[in-house]
Design goal:
mainly alpha
Length: 230
C-alpha cells in the first residue's frame, strides 16, 4: 500500500525545488455565481465546492478588496490576482487538500474574524497576513501525511519536524516573490521579514500534532468565560 512505501518517488513534486510560476490569464467569471458567493463570504453557510475554480479566484480577490487591502497596503490589484492564480496552480489535484480546501479555510477564517469582532483589532497588514496564511497553509500538499513523508531521509533531514507545514511556508514565499507574481515587490526589508515571520508562524501552527497544545492555551485564556474550545 502507499503507506508502506519507503520513499516519495510517487509524489516527486514534493521533492523538487519550486517549479517555475506559469500563470494563466485572469479568468472570466459567472457574474451571477460571484454575486451569490459575495452574499455568503461573511457567513458560515458557504460551500466552495458549489462554485467553479475560476469563480473562487474572483471571490478570493473580493475578500481582499472588501477589506480594502489593495488600497491600504498600496499593492496593485493585479498582483493580488497573480498571487491567487499562483496559489491555485500550486495546489495539487488531491481529493481534499486542493484549491477548494484552501479557499474554504480563507473564507471561514474571514467569516469568523468578522462574527467574533477580531477583524477590528487587526491592522491592515495583520489582516493580510491572516488571509495569506490561510490561502498558503497547504500549498503543494502531496496528499499524504507527515509520518509517511518522514520515511524519506532527505526530507526528514531537511525539515526535521512539522515537515509538511515547513514545506508549505517555504513554497508560499517562493511563489510570492517570484517575478511572475511580485506580490511583495517594493516592501522594505523590515516589513518583508515581519510579514514573512507572521505568515510562516501561522502556517506552522496548523500542524495537527500541536492542536491539543493550542487548545490548552486557548482554554486557559478563556478561563471561566463561556464554553471551552474543542
Amino acid at each position: 500500500s502507499l503507506e508502506k512505501q519507503s520513499d516519495v518517488a510517487c509524489i516527486p513534486e514534493f521533492r523538487r525545488s519550486a517549479k517555475p510560476v506559469r500563470l494563466p490569464p485572469w479568468p472570466p467569471c459567472s457574474e451571477s455565481e460571484v454575486t451569490r458567493g459575495r452574499a455568503l463570504l461573511t457567513t458560515m453557510n458557504m460551500d466552495p465546492t458549489t462554485f467553479s475554480r475560476d469563480d473562487l479566484c474572483h471571490l478570493a480577490l473580493q475578500v481582499f478588496k472588501d477589506l480594502d487591502l489593495p488600497t491600504q497596503l498600496q499593492i496593485q490589484e493585479d498582483r493580488f490576482q497573480r498571487f491567487i492564480l499562483a496559489v491555485r496552480e500550486h495546489m495539487f489535484d488531491n481529493p481534499y487538500h486542493n484549491w477548494f480546501h484552501v479557499f474554504d479555510v480563507m473564507q471561514t477564517s474571514y467569516a469568523l474574524s468578522i462574527s467574533t469582532g477580531i477583524i477590528h483589532s487587526l491592522s491592515a497588514w495583520e489582516r493580510f497576513e491572516l488571509l495569506t496564511a490561510c490561502l498558503c497553509h497547504d500549498l503543494e500538499h502531496p496528499g499524504v501525511s507527515t509520518p509517511f513523508l518522514e520515511q524519506a531521509p532527505a526530507l526528514a533531514l531537511a525539515f526535521k519536524d512539522t515537515l509538511l507545514e515547513k514545506h508549505h511556508a517555504l513554497r508560499a514565499f517562493e511563489v510570492m516573490v517570484d517575478r511572475e507574481v511580485g506580490l511583495l515587490e517594493g516592501l522594505s526589508t523590515e516589513r518583508y521579514y515581519s510579514f514573512r515571520g507572521a505568515v510562516s508562524r501561522a502556517i506552522l501552527a496548523t500542524d495537527i500534532s500541536k492542536h491539543e497544545g493550542y487548545l490548552t492555551l486557548v482554554n486557559a485564556k478563556i478561563g471561566n468565560e463561556g464554553e471551552a474550545a474543542t
